[in-house]
Design brief:
Helix content: 55-70%
Number of helices: 8
Order of helices and strands: HHHHHHHHEEEEEEE
Number of strands: 7
Number of domains: 2
Strand content: 15-25%
Length: about 300
């Protein structure tokens, strides 16, 4: 998935979690069309996860085969380098010993694209002295096996790179999946309005879970503005407590308070002010989403 698809996928997860919340379930489950849409969105999510799993297995297979081919090649190269090094010691040939010492010690440290170059150096030196290397168990058969292993490795680097590149790109099927999702969610957005009058909190919390954001730049944060229910003006010095936590805040001049790193899920915000009715405001925090809300407080003695 690309960055935008990843953000949309995360939003879908939050949207499904919102609807599966025990308190939200009774609101929509009785609406046949609405319930059917949620079921379809869940099914599409399963289809996408199956596709991602298949792509992940391809990537894992490429990595495993590449490692195995590299191991086979470098093991043969190490044999040739070590035995040619021994020949160099016996002959007192420092050019051979220096070259073979370097090669055999860095096989495991160089990049995939560079290791074949080291193997070539080993083969080149061994071929120059092939007539003298037989007592050291280096013969043409061993060099042929090494060259074949190198050819297999280089060939698979190209093949594996192509497979990984295809996996990383959004496949037509994945694009089709996201297109289906967007159509279903768009229809769901329109249906949410049926609850606008009967369940305003449901609609408000749906909007929060529906937002698409880049997860890499966000934390679980709550930013709230407290205003007078009648005038709409900000209310300062409201005492705020998040139930079940030690978090306490007081609204500032503009009626704002902020909390970061809240645990995902539903929270109850308790608000107190001497000039207003005490209030408990429920809010749902979604993973990696900044939640922004406005809370309206009723002046003391005016509660219906």
């Amino acid at each position: 998935m690309n960055k935008n698809q990843s953000a949309y996928y995360k939003m879908i997860g939050g949207l499904i979690a919102f609807h599966e919340n025990a308190e939200n379930l009774p609101v929509w489950s009785g609406q046949a069309v609405y319930a059917a849409l949620i079921a379809e969105i869940k099914t599409i999510k399963l289809e996408l996860e199956a596709l991602l799993s298949k792509q992940m297995s391809k990537t894992k297979w490429v990595s495993g085969k590449k490692s195995k081919l590299r191991e086979t090649m470098t093991e043969l190269a190490y044999q040739v380098a070590s035995r040619t090094y021994a020949y160099g010691l016996v002959e007192g040939n420092s050019d051979i010993t220096d070259e073979m010492r370097l090669s055999r010690t860095v096989f495991g440290k160089v990049k995939d694209t560079e290791v074949s170059g080291l193997v070539d150096r080993v083969i080149t030196v061994a071929k120059k002295h092939i007539g003298q290397l037989d007592p050291f168990h280096v013969n043409q058969e061993l060099l042929d096996a090494l060259e074949e292993a190198k050819a297999n490795y280089i060939s698979f680097l190209v093949e594996g790179k192509t497979i990984v590149s295809e996996v990383k790109e959004a496949t037509p099927k994945m694009k089709e999946t996201f297109s289906k999702w967007r159509r279903k969610v768009s229809t769901l957005d329109n249906l949410v309005n049926i609850f606008a009058n009967t369940h305003p909190d449901f609609v408000s919390h749906y909007a929060i879970s529906r937002k698409i954001r880049d997860a890499a730049t966000l934390t679980m944060e709550l930013r709230a503005r407290v205003v007078d229910n009648e005038s709409g003006l900000p209310v300062k010095n409201v005492l705020v407590h998040i139930a079940g936590t030690k978090i306490k805040r007081k609204t500032r001049k503009r009626g704002v308070f902020q909390v970061v790193n809240l645990i995902e899920g539903k929270h109850e915000i308790h608000l107190e002010h001497p000039d207003y009715e005490a209030q408990v405001y429920p809010v749902i925090i979604v993973d990696n989403v900044r939640t922004e809300i406005t809370i309206r407080m009723i002046p003391a003695g005016k509660k219906e």
